[in-house]
Specification:
With about 1050 residues, the chain is an alpha+beta fold. Helices cover about 45% and strands about 15% of the residues. It has 37 helices and 33 strands. Strands 25-24-23-22-28-27-26-29 form an eight-stranded mixed β-sheet, with helices on one face. It has a seven-stranded mixed β-sheet with strand order 3-4-18-5-14-8-9, sandwiched between helices. The protein has a four-stranded mixed β-sheet with strand order 30-31-33-32, with no helix packed on it. The structure holds adenosine-5'-diphosphate (ADP) and magnesium ion. Keywords: Actin-binding, ATP-binding, Motor protein, Myosin, Nucleotide-binding, Repeat.
């Protein structure tokens, strides 16, 4: 789900937004001091801090400034999840946090493409360095990484332990106090990935190398080396594993601190050096220098009888010479003598005991101080934007991190405090300038009238310190350079002379009675913006001079330790001109820093330490009040509250409070400013309570806002219901959309498939048609690729059609007309089919029928196309007999005995003589036939003697059975007429086995009447059948013509 354009895990983020700390104000004060009703009351301010501190809410805003109180315990608010929580979230939506400042700065850099800086200030031990580390870690974790430079984040982070080892020390106020100021630039490419870094260091507290106050330590690295370094290493450096053996480490009488594990830190530092890219040789040289400083501290002097000074610890000296890579004798001389140039001549004069000691300390400080600068430079080389990334650094922006000493007021304040407090004055000046400027700019862009703000402008103090010729630094420099007897007191007198009248400057002499009592004669007092500080002038000149005698410089220049030869240039030793004084250099570097910061958009983190005991849960009100004052937080608040307590962009304001007005709930669709107007008029804001700018609403009193906030609180249950409703609605809607989408997907796939199928079918059809047309054109050619398909198709479809239209009966002679290419095959098929049908037919035939058929076949053989009767008989079945058994006389049957009558028929027999017709029965046996006159067999004709059977070709029933006349038993040929002549003749000829004896005579038939006597039967066509005697004794048979069918 998205909320205000961001991906949010619904429950988590919405809850967070709801739980904006505004809501929680009753429980834990206000999360933004701007919302304090009584913004002029320091007590209210501190009370708010205290209440939140008690609840472990260590962060509070003053507008966009973050106030952080050191909890002195680990809080569960720096996890990766917390980082994610703050990523991309608007400043006010979520409880104050260092991550919110980091993220806001980062986003401002990305969106506005303007360089940013985060200024972290506060007393020593207030948590500045921790804050800067948290910011760095936040960027290392949350920013995208440039794949060229995955290790840059590591190196950025690892630069911290190294710098801390060499630049931090245990002080009374902080076990890990940074003894130098640090400004770090992180460069991001246009995609927002860190691609490089750069560190500027300010004013390392070098005096710590040679001296520590009670309860404090030297820089960590000395103790780390002695505790963590391997035996071999310590041996090679001629060191003992005991800090008590080194006079530079025993001044504070505090070799061990419970919160510090030097052994572990040593490992961490060595690893970090490796990650950053220090070579083992470089590390070795670095440790040589560290060890030589310890040996220097143990170098002791004796005073000779003539007042000359000599070195009593020769072994130490040779150790130092070896470690520093310098000539031992030259070093010895340089430590005990000074070189003077008088009237162009060089002279060497011995040093006093005190002078020798301070020369030794000066050497230690110079060597350590410059080595530290070398270290920073080396780290910078490692963090520098690599060449291959130069192109992507074009559109890049920078976030600067300033972790610099806060205002410092000690029991006895010296040159260092003077510089530190001067630095804070400058930062305050910058802060006022930038805050007021941005405030004024905001009013302008929003089109509101600027109302002048009452605040203290500390320019006057800055001028007092830094003005050319007239400022304290100039006077100090002058005093250092002035020939003749100069001392710290003469400097103080000079100050009284020059700036004595300045309202922010007081000395014992100038002070009134009350102030005089708390000031010593060696002090001057500055009235800083944050409060009064007394500075003791003792050591000012020396510290400002920061002198290393020329002959010592010459010795170190000759060193074959590359670090030293890099740090101490030969030109410097030769150069007669004095280098700038410490304060002067500091002033210059501060000016540069101011320039850098002015060019950037600043964010502020103000750190406060709650107690001096470094204890969790203790809130020392006096101490805190002191810091609130020194940090100028009330001033801060006043500037911020000068006009309006609260301002918010229209959309944010509307978004938060729209449920309070029916017109704007749930959504306002008009112009934002109208929506806000409608909202505030519904809420009853009075005209003096608010102003509408171009993009923001300005609310003058916190009370107004709180009333609104309370109304919102009361409304929340309702909103929750609405949210729930819309969330559920959204869920259902999303579900519906999912289903709908799925349906559409299925539908489209199905339709697509259908369309594809159709197209395929069409394509195939077109192809088919094409092939058919082509085939048709080529149809008369031989079988070839062009007509192949066509012909196949024609054949196929003919055969297919044929298969459905085959004749089903043997008699059916129809046959489909084949295509030309299939004529021959068709004929074969027809024959085959016919044969097949015949075979089948034959298989199906019954014996009865077979007999019938055989008879018919015989009949056909005999009569077909011979006799007119024949066609008529084809369609008629031959019967087994034309006589019923009863019709045949029993007597006859008895006579015939075992002979079985095969066929019987009534016939008319014509006598041989006169052709008289007589009705008879003709019975056919197996081997003979008989003519029966009722009960009497009249004639028996053995088939064996049957000579022939004659019939006419006409349509008559005449049959002549020719028997030989020679046989007496026989009575000559039998002339018979019957109505089933074809049947009779067929059966007879078959029974007799004399089918070939049948004679179909087209004309007349001769009949043997008696031996050698013939009768003739003439056949004539006439209208109807008639048998009669004709001329010449012929028997004339008139046969009807065949009906013309
Ligand atoms: N946010 C924090 N959470 C827990 N402890 C902190 C926090 N800030 C500071 N401290 C504690 O306070 C000590 C001093 O903080 P540091 O940042 O070194 O102070 P400064 O740099 O201002 O002198 C740290 O060593 C740490 O123990
Ligand atoms: Mg610090």
């Amino acid at each position: 789900m998205r909320y205000q354009g961001r991906e949010v895990d619904v429950e988590g983020r919405v809850r967070l937004v709801m739980e904006s700390a505004l809501t929680a104000r009753d429980r834990v004060g206000v999360q933004d001091f701007v919302l304090l009703e009584n913004y002029n009351s320091e007590a209210a301010f501190i009370e708010n801090l205290r209440r939140r501190f008690r609840e472990n809410l260590i962060y509070t805003y003053i507008g966009s400034v973050l106030v952080s109180v050191n909890p002195y315990k680990e809080l569960e608010i720096y996890s990766k999840q917390q980082m994610e929580r703050y990523r991309g979230v608007s400043f006010y939506e979520i409880s104050p946090h260092i991550y919110a400042v980091s993220d806001n700065t980062y986003r401002a850099m990305r969106t506005e493409r303007k360089d940013q800086c985060i200024l972290i200030s506060g007393e020593s031990g207030a948590g500045k360095t921790e804050a800067s580390k948290k910011i760095l870690l936040y960027y290392a974790v949350t920013c995208p990484t440039n794949h060229h430079l995955v290790t840059l984040g590591d190196r950025l982070l690892q630069s911290n332990p190294v710098l801390e080892a060499f630049g931090n020390a245990k002080t009374l106020r902080n076990d890990n106090s940074s003894r130098f100021g640090k400004y770090m630039d992180i460069q991001f490419d246009f995609k927002g990935a860190p691609i490089g870094g750069h560190i500027l260091n300010y004013l390392l507290e070098k005096s710590r190398v040679v001296h520590q106050n009670h309860g404090e330590r030297n820089f960590h690295i000395f103790y780390q080396l002695l505790d963590g370094g391997e035996d071999d290493l310590l041996n090679s450096l001629n060191l003992e594993r005991n800090p008590q053996s080194y006079s530079y480490l025993v001044k504070g009488n505090c070799p061990r601190v419970s919160s510090i594990n030097d052994k572990n830190s040593w490992k961490v530092v060595m690893k970090a050096l490796d990650v950053i890219g220090f070579t083992p040789e470089e590390v070795q040289k670095l440790l040589n220098i560290i060890a030589s400083v310890l040996h220097l501290g143990n170098t002791l002097f004796g005073e000779g009888e003539e007042g000359e000074t000599y070195i009593t610890t020769e072994t130490q000296l040779s150790n130092i010479a070896k470690l520093l890579g310098v000539d031992g004798l030259a070093l010895k001389e340089a430590l005990t003598h000074k070189k003077l140039t008088a009237k162009g001549e060089e002279m060497i004069s011995p040093l006093s005991f005190e002078q020798a000691v301070s020369a030794r300390d000066a050497l230690a400080k110079a060597v350590y101080g410059r080595t530290f600068s070398w270290l920073v430079e080396k780290i910078n080389q490692s963090l520098a934007v690599k060449e291959e990334l130069y192109h992507s650094s074009k559109g890049s922006s920078v976030i600067g991190l300033l972790d610099i000493y806060g205002f410092e007021v000690l029991q006895c304040n010296s040159f260092e405090q003077f510089c530190i407090n001067y630095c804070n004055e400058k930062l305050q000046q910058l802060f006022i300038e930038l805050t007021l400027r941005s405030e004024q700019e905001e009013y302008e862009t929003e089109g509101l009238a600027w109302e002048p703000v009452q605040y203290f402008d500390n320019k006057i103090i800055c001028d007092l310190i830094e003005e050319k010729h007239k400022g304290i630094i100039s006077i100090l420099d002058e005093e250092c350079l002035r020939p003749g007897e100069t001392c710290d007191i003469s400097f103080l007198e000079k100050l009284e002379d020059t700036v004595g009248g300045h309202p922010h400057f007081v000395t014992h002499k100038l002070a009134n009675g009350k102030a005089r009592r708390v000031m010593s004669r060696e002090e001057f007092r500055l009235l800083h913006y944050a409060g009064e500080v007394n500075y003791n002038v003792n050591g000012f000149l020396d510290k400002n001079n920061d002198l290393l005698s020329r002959n010592l410089k010459e010795v170190v220049c000759q060193s074959d330790n590359q670090i030293l030869s890099y740090c101490f240039r030969r030109e410097e030793a030769i150069d007669q001109k004095r280098p700038g004084m410490a304060a002067y250099q500091f002033k210059n570097s501060l000016m540069k820093l101011m320039e850098i910061l002015m060019s950037k958009e600043p964010s502020y983190v103000r750190c406060i330490k709650p107690n001096d005991a470094k204890q969790p849960g203790r809130f020392d009100e006096v101490l805190v009040r002191h810091q609130v004052k020194y940090l100028g937080l009330m001033e801060n608040l006043r500037v911020r509250r000068a006009g309006f307590a609260y301002r918010r962009r229209f959309e944010a304001f509307l978004q938060r409070y729209k449920p309070l007005c029916p017109e704007t709930w749930p959504n306002w669709h008009g112009k934002l400013v109208d929506g806000v107007s409608a909202l505030v008029s519904h809420l009853g804001y009075k005209a003096e309570e608010f102003k509408l700018g171009r993009s923001k609403i300005f609310i003058r009193f916190p009370k107004t806002l709180f009333t609104t906030e309370d109304a919102l609180e009361a409304k929340k249950p309702e909103i929750a219901v609405v949210l729930q409703k819309s969330w559920r609605g959204y869920r259902e809607w999303a579900n519906y959309q999912r289903i709908r989408h799925a349906v559409i997907v299925i539908q489209s796939a199905w339709r697509g498939m259908k369309a594809r199928r159709r197209a395929k079918r069409r394509r195939q059809a077109a192809e088919l048609i094409r092939r058919l047309i082509k085939g048709f054109i080529y149809r008369h050619e031989d079988y070839c690729p062009e007509n192949q398909y066509f012909l196949d198709h024609v054949r196929y479809s003919f055969l297919k059609k044929l298969s459905k239209n085959l004749p089903t009966s043997v008699l059916d002679k129809s046959w489909l007309t084949p295509p030309p290419s299939l004529v021959e095959a068709s004929e074969h098929l027809q024959t085959l089919h016919m044969r097949n049908m015949v075979i089948n037919y034959c298989r199906r035939v019954q014996p009865e029928w077979k007999k019938q058929m055989m008879q018919k076949v015989v009949a056909s053989e005999i009569f077909k196309d011979q006799k007119d009767n024949y066609p008529l008989s084809v369609g008629r079945l031959f019967l087994d007999s034309r006589l019923e058994r009863e019709q045949i006389s029993l007597k006859v049957l008895q006579t015939l005995g075992s002979e079985k009558v095969q066929y019987g028929i009534s016939v008319i027999k014509y006598d041989r003589r006169g052709f008289k017709p007589r009705a008879r029965q003709l019975l056919l046996m197996n081997s003979f036939a008989v003519l029966v006159d009722r009960t009497k067999i009249k004639q028996r004709i053995d088939y064996a003697i049957l000579r022939g059977i004659s019939v006419s070709s006409l349509m008559d029933g005449m049959v002549v059975l020719h028997v030989p006349c020679e046989d007496n038993k026989q009575k000559g040929d039998a002339v018979i007429h019957c109505s089933h002549v074809i049947e009779l003749v067929t059966k007879l000829s078959m029974l007799a086995g004399k089918t070939s004896y049948v004679n179909v005579s087209p004309g007349s038939i001769r009949v043997a009447v008696a031996r050698n006597k013939e009768g003739i039967i003439d056949f004539i066509r006439g209208s109807e059948l008639k048998v009669a005697k004709g001329k010449r004794g012929h028997l004339v048979v008139i046969a009807p013509r065949i009906a013309a069918t």
